[in-house]
Write a structure and sequence with these properties.
- The structure holds three protein chains of three kinds.
- Chain A contains 19 helices and ten strands.
- By secondary structure, chain A is of the alpha+beta class.
- Among the domains of chain A are: 169 residues, no CATH class; 101 residues.
- In chain A, helix 16 packs antiparallel against helix 17.
- By secondary structure, chain B is mainly alpha-helical.
- Chain B folds into two domains: 72 residues, Cytochrome C biogenesis protein (Helicase, Ruva Protein, domain 3, Orthogonal Bundle), CATH 1.10.8.640; 52 residues, no CATH class.
- Helix content of chain B is 64%, strand content 1%.
- Chain B has six helices and one strand.
- In chain B, helix 2 packs across helix 3.
- Chain B is elongated and about 105 Å long.
- Chain C is an alpha/beta fold.
- Chain C contains five helices and seven strands, in the order αβββαβαβαββα.
- In chain C, helix 3 links the parallel strand 4 and strand 5.
- Classes of the chains: A alpha+beta, B mainly alpha, C alpha/beta.
- At the A-B interface, helix 13, helix 14, strand 1 and strand 2 of A face strand 1, helix 5 and helix 6 of B.
Chain lengths: 646, 152, 176
Amino acid sequence: MDQAMIPEIGHFALILALCVSIVQGVLPLIGAQQGRREWLVLARPATQISFFLLTLSFGILAWCFYVNDFSVLYVAEHSNAQLPTVYRIGAVWGGHEGSLLLWIFLLTGWAFAVAQLSKTLDEFMVARVLGVLGLVATGLLLFVLATSNPFERLLPAAQDGRSLNPLLQDPGLVFHPPMLYMGYVGFSVAFAFAIASLLSGKLDAAWARWSRPWTITAWIFLTLGIALGSWWAYYELGWGGWWFWDPVENASFMPWLIGTALIHSLAVTEKRGGFKNWTVLLAIIAFSMSLLGTFLVRSGVLTSVHAFATDPRRGIFILILLSLVVGSSLFLYALRAPKSTLGGAFSLMSRETLMLMGNVFLVVAAGSVLLGTLYPLLIDALNLGKISVGPPYFNAVFVPIMIPALFLLAVGPWANWKSTSITVLLKRLWVAALVAFIAAILIPRIMGEFTILTALGFLLAFWIIASGILQIIKQFKVGKPTRSFIGMQLGHIGIAVFVIGVTMVGAYQEEKDVRMAPGDTAMVGGYQLQLLGVKPAQGPNYQATRGVFELSRNGKVQEILSPEKRNYDSSTMPMTEAAIDAGLTRDIYVSLGEPLEGNAWAVRVYYKPFVDWIWGGCLLMALGGLFAVMDKRYRLRTKKSLLRKD
Amino acid sequence: MKRILTICLFLCFSHASWANEATPLAEDPALEQRLISISEEMRCLVCQNESLSGSRSELAQDLRREIRDLIRQGKTDAEIRTFMVDRYGDFILYRPPVKPITWLLWIGPFILMVAGIAALLMYLRRRSGQVHNATLTEDENKRIDALLREDK
Amino acid sequence: MKAKFIIPLLLFIVLVAFLAVGLNRDPREVPSPLINKAAPAFNVPQLADPKKSFSPEDMKGQVWILNVFASWCVACREEHPMLVEMSKSQVAPLIGLDYKDKRADAMEMLARQGNPYNLSAFDSDGRVGINYGVYGVPETYVIDKAGIIRFKQIGPITKEVLEKSIYPIISELKKD
């Protein structure tokens, strides 16, 4: 086969996939509406074929990168022959067209998984769910084929490509987009289930039971994707920050907040049959946020360090897609939601109420982030001028909203369903409250500085941890805990661990900007860092200057740290590679600045206590989600008979 | 001779002990601290997603130099912010100033919170009145309770 | 009771409306707060003859144009032909402000591409630029007879900008 034909096959596969997606999207939905079985049953095979075609197409694009086929324009723009293999593969999703293809590939993947794992689900439901996913795929494929074709040719082929931005040549960055997209795209399944149930007119608890494991899985990936992005920014960008409230970061955080509200709301809908309308709305909003995020990054509407190269045509297309998908869903919601039935009764003081309150806080938080992110656009669109909304705003607004949510987190699991009394809660929680207060007063004293905000952070974190431990103890007295229970504990404790990390780093980190010549020692956080020397180094596609530092504490040498200043062949801006000695209780972070006279260098040193607890907490949350999912599937199989009756 | 040697050695060692500690890059660390806290809340206009304090662009360096001068002249934080806003507009501030066009921004989250809690309370109150007419059958309720018991 | 279910849809429509408008805006552009305010005073040496100086005071009573440029700026070189055309039309005096440049480089650029300026001032450390809110070259200001800034162009002057904005404003201001 002629090498030049291969990209064309990839392109053709996309066109075929579009046709199949149209079939997948249209026929099963009409079939379900009109009771036509012949059209209903097309859903699964169409989904399987779509997935196969997208795998082929995506695989071919990856292949083009692997073999350096610079006759494909996208490859020439984002990769070159000196790029190490692993980054050549990562470059597949390094630009707009490729990352969009990844999006669609993952979408068909999730749809395929739903098709394969839904054998016991009512066939009308299956048809509708896969049909909705087919429609979404159709929209995106149209977008790709019309405005963002990754297989566009560059003829005659370039000798060598332009290469990937050095910032993106990093393992963290290779995994961050796929993880994130698994999350975004995964919410489409929850969305599809919600739409399917609205379409069927039967808003009962069964769809919640089916939807829950998919939603939790998507949430796990989103959590990991965001954590990975944050961790990458921390070690790669050179100044130790880990969250910037950048518009595109916010675009990933909003679906996460809504998704967290959703998984809790689904739990209530499943167990108690309540909140059905609210849960359906949340599922629609979560996916809408994913699409909105896609719009914000690729349309040029907001400045962001993440933004892909923009083209107004693309912006308009995505906006139309967004409007159609979300608009029609919300319209359907307005029509059908009033018809749903109520669930079981519960009193004002109950687990249901507390979970609903938690939902309110999460949604308000997401709404506030949305407000702050879009406000500059709002003001500009109304011709009222140009303003900036940056981290000071978000920090000022987000933290107060989260405080009551964190407080409730520890209370909720103690409350009974249907009804619970406040005195009972107080009795169960006073120990946790005591532990929390002691921690809030003691830890800042030990660390050296007491502020109200810091104390509050420890108060909430230990409140949650203590409450969780007490719950675990109580559970073990009764019997073996379910995976669902373990999942909840891990998830909640994960948040507490996260809060500890944020509070510690925020309050007690030390930063020093110093001038160092070989032999000089910088002191930070009780550690000594001595510069042994600076020497040149060579990488596969860069030249570097490497500083060699010796880290010691109390005279004992612990580690050698080697930060670098790299000059990539493809870029004029020098890149800083920080060196980090990571530890359970602290990171020591060194980065090289500019060379100074006298053989000296500007060096920045950080002592960051407990910073890894930030991402550790996220890992715990993701692990918690994993336990929760594993519980559900087990229950799904045994409760098969119940489902049949619904 | 021995005395001279001792003095020389003493001088060598004492020189060595403080020659080893790295000196702060900034001439005046206290001023630098103030510079950082002020410029952290400003946007770099060239690399628009970095703060003025972190950006390595030339304009950012020039503006930081201006702020240092202003601090040395004894200006307050507010005066320095006004200096920047007079030249570059509100866009340069990361913390949006509280003025009529940003009232919605600053009050918004609070309104959302109040509205959310109010909506919740209204919903709960209404629901406890309605649920007596719930369409769940006794059987369904029994099944739900059985599920709950297993779950705890 | 039924009406509340339509609220999400309505909110969404409003959101889309704003996003649609936003597509036509440039989020990176920083509009100047100096419009309709007095042009900041300065006194700097001239580019060609360092012994002579220039100040906006010198231009009081005339409508004039201040163009901030630099030899190291690619967009400035692209804009240059437009400036030459503008100076040929003799519509208003064109004063250059050489921003953070080397004298020799700037003189060489003007020699090579033509000198459209009546004269150029030399802002070596960029302080004048900062006072004028310059954040990227080229930038151009139209200043009236009383020394008030009436228009600012961010980025290179194109034919469209010249004909739709600059010339009309200048003729308006000249009438006063």
